[in-house]
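To whoever is on call:

I kicked off a structure prediction for a single chain this morning and the downstream step that reads the tokens threw a length-mismatch warning. I double-checked the sequence; it's 407 residues and nothing unusual in it as far as I can see. Pasting both halves so you can look.
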Amino acid sequence: MSKKAVYVMGMLLLAVIACEKITPGAPDPGDTIAEPTDGLTPEQTALFVNGDELFARVFTPEEGLGPIFIQSSCEGCHVGDGKGHPFNLETRFGKQTGNGFDFMLDKGGPQLQERSISGYLGETLPSDYTHTTQRLAPIVIGMGHLAALHDSTILNMADPNDINGDGISGRVNYVIPKDYFKPETIHLDSSGFFIGRFGKKAKEITLLDQVVFALKQDMGLTSDFDTEDLFNYQIANGATDNVPDPEVSSDIVDKLVFYMRTLKTPTRRNENDPDVLAGEKLFTQIGCANCHVPTLKTAVSDILAISEKEFHPYTDLLLHDMGPELNDGYPEGSANGSEWRTPPLWGLGLAEDSQGGTGYYLHDGRATTLEETIGLHSGGEASNIASNFFALTQSEKDQLITFLKSL
């Protein structure tokens, strides 16, 4: 059991044994990032612990792993629930045709699974693909707060026609929901399309979508929500792992979703440091906050601890055109190749800890410094903001970077 799980289980046991509220000493901020959000009930904390154990669980071929896969556990990509490492990049592929973009589902698309169980061969790219794109696993803490936003909050930040004239024209990604999707009061129907908010291009509507996709496309695990197993189209016409589908129950999926819903938002560090405060002002002055919106508020939720809460993700969850240098030619939903969802900046200063000491940024980890990352914003909508950053003095740049690392 992880240090985090032991700590949380200890909290639960104390709550159950004692007749009065007991508040144990918490670890110092920054020592761990994967903690339950404050205010959970003992029952909810127990569910959180169950989800934590499942998130770290290493699945075996006997339990349905594969026959082709990328990783054997959630934490295999999201180490400590933080950002992934470039050695674990996911590859998606497809081809451009005269009729649009083909995700090559009949040849193993949209995602490449290069690993396999014993006696089976992993995939290689089909010979007729035209586009690939690589994705770095995101930090997962705080995602429950993003999931609890009302669609109207996201729409109110959108400005697809740049009516306010700031050069930023963020828009929502309207996607077709999965067959199992059940809209909640926070979801607004737009002629059968709904607003995506998860994934690099906001192609997933809910955390359930995200979990179901990862179970199958990353680990080869079917569920009650997606029962058709992966297989290598180049060597077979069906799955051969000999494990009945679905391989994981809806109970397991639900516990993973609850775990992600109730992960605590990242803890700020050194927020009262003079350089951090100066950098925060510069962040707004040069226009970064136009897309990386600092403060949002959740809607009413069935989990009281995340209901109507202000939080600070530094995102608008909208699609923005990032220009030719970041154009991967790979559409998702209504997003084209150069459009990307504004990534939340919270936890940015924790990235190096989960990535082996070096931070890897952007959707594919190509940048290894924050200054390099800002430089790659020089095309598309953020070009003026990037120019504003590089026009700062070195001292001011340092202050802004110090602020970003405090998030």
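Update from on-call: the warning came from a stale cache, not from the record. Cleared it. Sanity check on the structure: Residues 143-196+265-405 form one domain.
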